[in-house]
């Protein structure tokens, strides 16, 4: 499916590279290219709804939707235990955990915006630290 793979680094001080690969071409499924691009962008914003609905009609929506849904699952697996830990521990630790989860949420928002921008250019962003449970 993906023929090329490119690793870029957004910030020289950033030690976590973001992998960007070529995505399946728009218009490769039963939808036209413009409609498919719309659903690819929506798949990054609402993966739990768009991916199961449109994965069989578009290889591009399938690839982007899997990546975005895996990111949502990864975030749930990370943030749910952190919320439990914050609730069980004292105020100081809960404050630190809350700040950490807030930063993680902000970083995720930035990655989703980057993924949407790259999707419009025909690339798929491989989210860092993503558990790829759905293949």
TrEMBL record:
Matching entries from InterPro entries are given as: MamF_MmsF (IPR019109)
- Per its UniProt record, what Pfam families does this chain match? MamF_MmsF (PF09685)
- Identify the keywords attached in UniProt to this record, alphabetized: Membrane, Transmembrane, Transmembrane helix
Report the membrane topology from the UniProt record: Multi-pass membrane protein
Q: Where in the cell is it found?
A: Membrane
Q: What is this protein called?
A: Orotate phosphoribosyltransferase
- Give a yes or no for keyword Membrane in this entry: yes
| Residue ranges of the TM segments | 68-90, 96-117
**Which domain of life does this protein belong to?**
Bacteria
């Amino acid at each position: 499916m993906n023929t090329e793979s490119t690793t870029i680094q957004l910030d020289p001080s950033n030690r976590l590279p973001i992998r960007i690969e070529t995505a399946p071409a728009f218009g490769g499924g039963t939808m036209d290219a413009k409609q498919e691009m719309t659903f690819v962008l929506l798949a990054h914003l609402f993966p739990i709804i768009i991916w199961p609905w449109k994965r069989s009609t578009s290889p591009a929506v399938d690839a982007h939707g899997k990546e975005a849904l895996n990111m949502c699952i990864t975030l749930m697996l990370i943030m749910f235990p952190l919320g439990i830990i914050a609730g069980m521990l004292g105020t100081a630790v809960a404050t630190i955990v809350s700040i950490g989860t807030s930063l993680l949420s902000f970083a995720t928002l930035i990655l989703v915006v980057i993924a949407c921008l790259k999707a419009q250019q025909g690339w798929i962003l491989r989210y860092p630290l993503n558990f790829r449970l759905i293949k």
